[in-house]
Write a structure and sequence with these properties.
Largest sheet: 2 strands, antiparallel
Shape: globular
Radius of gyration: 18 Å
Length: about 190
């Protein structure tokens, strides 16, 4: 959540507020509505972006084979947890951070299809949750269905992303998913 707070300051907004949800984590809320979809997507993606700092010790220790066994194990566990949590948060369903990025891109590129795209992604997530026997994914998909019902084109006063900015945001999103996915797969055995 600290990444979101920093991103608010980076785009010139006041500090947001963090609301902690017991057993689930937290939500960071901006005090001022974003007037640009690029800002909204940037602030959403920065949560996982700043969390990459948690991966650095594990990457250094595994690359250079340095550190005591206890420190290496701790770094691997932190990297596995950070990778898993961020992958979950980067799922492209609203209201998760990945869904906020997808919504901002869709509102800029295909504004008439935002709701349909978000419903489709939530449906695919629900199917994946059923196939994988994962009730967490199914629960997230159900919440996403209800949240997606109120989505549509951006308000008139909100500036859309230019195609270049939307492309760069998609590249940043896919890169973050890849990095956190590799970290989770690489270091997840450390949790066992």
């Amino acid at each position: 959540e600290f990444g979101h707070l920093i991103s608010f300051r980076m785009i010139g907004q006041p500090w947001g507020k963090v609301i902690f949800i017991p057993f689930l984590g937290g939500v960071t809320v901006s005090r001022v509505p974003h007037l640009k979809l690029a800002d909204d997507a940037f602030c959403a993606i920065m949560g996982a972006g700043l969390s990459m700092v948690a991966l650095v010790p594990a990457i250094i220790m595994s690359t250079f084979q340095v550190g005591s066994p206890g420190a290496v194990h701790l770094a691997y566990v932190i990297a596995a947890i950070a990778g898993g949590l961020n992958l979950l948060n980067l799922l492209p369903v609203f209201p998760l951070d990945g869904g906020r990025v997808l919504r901002a891109v869709m509102q800029s590129v295909l504004p008439g299809h935002v709701r349909h795209a978000m419903f489709m992604v939530a449906g695919l997530l629900a199917i994946g949750g059923v196939v994988l026997h994962n009730p967490v994914l199914v629960a997230i998909a159900v919440v996403a269905f209800f949240q997606s019902a109120r989505l549509g084109p951006a308000k008139q006063e909100v500036a859309l992303m230019q195609p270049y900015a939307a492309t760069m945001m998609c590249i940043a999103y896919v890169s973050l998913v890849a990095v956190h996915g590799v970290a989770m797969v690489q270091y997840w055995p450390s949790l066992g």
